Amino acid sequence: MILVTGGTGLVGAHLLFFLLRKGNRVRAIHRTNSNLLAVKDVFSYYMENPDLLYQKIEWVEANLNDIPALTEAFHGIDKVYHTAAYVSFDPKNFNKLRKSNIEGTANIINLCLYFKIKKLCYMSSIATLGEGENFKFITEKSVWNPDEKNSVYAITKYGAEMEVWRGVQEGLNAVIMNAGVILGSGFWKSGTGAIFSKVYKGLNYYTNGETGFVDVRDVVKICTSLME
Q1: Could you tell me the residue range of the domain that residue 193 belongs to?
Q2: Which of 131, 218, 117 is nearest to 175 (CA)?
Q3: Distance from C-alpha of 45 to C-alpha of 59, rounded to nearest angstrom
Q4: Which of 6, 29, 130, 139 could pair with 12 in a Cys bridge, judged by C-beta atoms 3.0 to 4.6 Å apart?
Q5: What are phi and psi of 162, to 5 degrees?
Q6: SS3 assignment, position 162
């Protein structure tokens, strides 16, 4: 059985559909106030009757720091996709970011080790790769520079990666994916998808610069390929 954290998020929702379509048994973690129907909406982009697959999801209410609930969710699990994260670039939210992204990931890693999970896929971000020097391309081989003006989000996601690598050193089979700005159906009014409505309504000014966009379907395909 497969466990997905962040099941109601952009990546998590599309990942759930892909896994269920392949015939996998799936358990998904959601927070108390999560909108489960958002997942069904995502499924509706792929099929006329989303209930056929949606009803096969085994939902578990928990957060990344609720160790008793997480422990229950891990029973009978073979593989884990850790996509849950708290996203904010406001320094005032650093403690919340650290609690969720670093400490929460540490809890996931500890449980993966305890339950001898076969493999973990951690959804990270290109934010952890830092800034390229002199406009050079950055890759997974780029060295993290703590002296740079990294965002609080990047700092905590990097800290989460260190927890994953700690797990690897302790025997966990894991992969980390550093995705760019993820776009996908079902989340057009919030997160990265909101950029479309903002552009449609018109912007007061346009800035220089560029970033890397990626389709959530490509992200899911790569994640599942890495877990085979």
Answers
A1: 2-226
A2: 117
A3: 21
A4: 6
A5: -65, -35
A6: helix
- Tens-of-pLDDT digits for all 228 residues of the chain? 999 999 999 999 999 999 999 999 999 999 988 889 899 999 999 999 999 999 999 999 999 999 999 999 999 999 999 999 999 999 999 999 999 999 999 999 999 999 999 999 999 998 888 765 665 677 777 778 777 788 999 999 999 999 999 999 999 999 999 998 898 887 666 666 667 666 767 777 777 777 788 999 999 999 999 999
| Rounded Cα–Cα distance for residues 96 and 4 (Å) | 21
Asked if residues 90 and 195 have their Cβ atoms less than 8 Å apart, the reply is: no
Q: Quote the pTM value.
A: 0.91
Among residues 77, 157, 161, the alpha carbon closest in space to that of 119 is found at 77
Tokens of 161: 């990666």
**CA distances (Å), 136 to each of 170, 176, 178, in order?**
34, 22, 17
Q: Which two tokens stand for residue 114?
A: 């305890």
Question: Which CATH number is 98's domain given?
Answer: 3.40.50.720
| Residue labelled with tokens 């050193």 | 169
CA distance 202 to 191: 18
